[in-house]
Amino acid sequence: MPDDTDRFRLHVVSEALRLFSEKGYEATSVDEIAEAAGISRRTFFRQFRSKEDVVFADHEILLAQAQEYLAADHDDPWDAVCDAAMIVFERFSQWNDMATRRYAVVHEVPALRDREIVTGFRYERLFVDYLRRALPGEPDLSMVQFSASVTATHNYLLRRMVRDGAEATSEDLRAALADIRRGVGRRDAPAADGDGEMVVAVFPRGTAPRRVAELLRRRLEEDE
Amino acid sequence: MPDDTDRFRLHVVSEALRLFSEKGYEATSVDEIAEAAGISRRTFFRQFRSKEDVVFADHEILLAQAQEYLAADHDDPWDAVCDAAMIVFERFSQWNDMATRRYAVVHEVPALRDREIVTGFRYERLFVDYLRRALPGEPDLSMVQFSASVTATHNYLLRRMVRDGAEATSEDLRAALADIRRGVGRRDAPAADGDGEMVVAVFPRGTAPRRVAELLRRRLEEDE
């Protein structure tokens, strides 16, 4: 949960994004942001290095929260990364107004677009670094691909939610992440009921392996 | 293939990166780059907007080449994206000295690291945009995930090649991209010999679908 400093910062971010979306990013001064947020210019610069920083300050808070979440103990590091992405997504669902305003502001200022890409990449890097520590035996490339897929999926659905209203929900993200999760590592969970049971699958030669996997998954889930 | 302007630009890029790696990025002036490349300051600024631009000018050339490649006719757009990534990778294999120098320079200057992330993202965006045009019926998220995986894989192996010498080859990339390719779309190629044949697979219930797919793939490839 955000602490008091985070809440204070979020208040400033929110006021700044409101001003940017009303007046434009370039036309809004730090003094106007400080006034709208009811703080002094000095306090602004103690909390944020620049006008640009304030646009992404909520990401700083969420990156710290994702990092904190991952630092706890987890049975399954792949699941933990998916859960961290869910936490970020759900937080943005709550902050939807702010995210929507940022979307509008960022897409008018190329420097902010670049900064958004770099910010998004920091989640990817956080996930890869965590997986490397948590799964030292795992092939590096699997962790890189997994983190890239999780981050791209999160960003894509977040953008749809922010841009198109409620079209993308956290349930969509949960389902998409579960699909990605199925593609990596092994689940060590004991197979409860079906332990020792065998599955026989018959399919035309030439069927793509992913398609086989997908059909099997659906059938196996139906059986549960 | 690079044309004359590209070759000229690459010559300047190469001289600039050599100077940056010898003297440091901040300590090298545009005048020194121009002198080393045997051009005037004016010619430098006709070709590049800034000292920062020159660091990534070869990416501009490769992005244009990838775009040109994708604009041609392709039977399979997924394969075309993998081939475009291969083209970029192989070009960097030829330019290995330059890529190695850039690696050293970029990792000392935070602004250049950010710029590298943004540049990498432009390949991802190029791939997504192309797939959307080429496969209008395909789910958007598949194309986003595919492009993110291809780009992350390319960048990871490129970084290993540049940082650790010849450890990652274009054969590694080809194999990794083929794995990603198997995960999406359908291959419409006619199943030659095995047409109409069926495969029967037996495996313990609870085996992860991806693992089933992987085992099947290996067995089916052995049979070929």
From TrEMBL, chains A, B:
It holds the Pfam family TetR_N. Residues 29-48 bind DNA. The keyword rRNA-binding does not apply. InterPro entries: Homeodomain-like_sf, HTH-type_TetR-like_transc_reg, HTH_TetR. Keywords: DNA-binding. One of its GO terms (molecular function) is transcription cis-regulatory region binding. The lineage of its organism: Bacteria, Bacillati, Actinomycetota, Actinomycetes, Mycobacteriales. This is DNA-binding transcriptional regulator, AcrR family. Residues 6-66 form the HTH tetR-type domain.
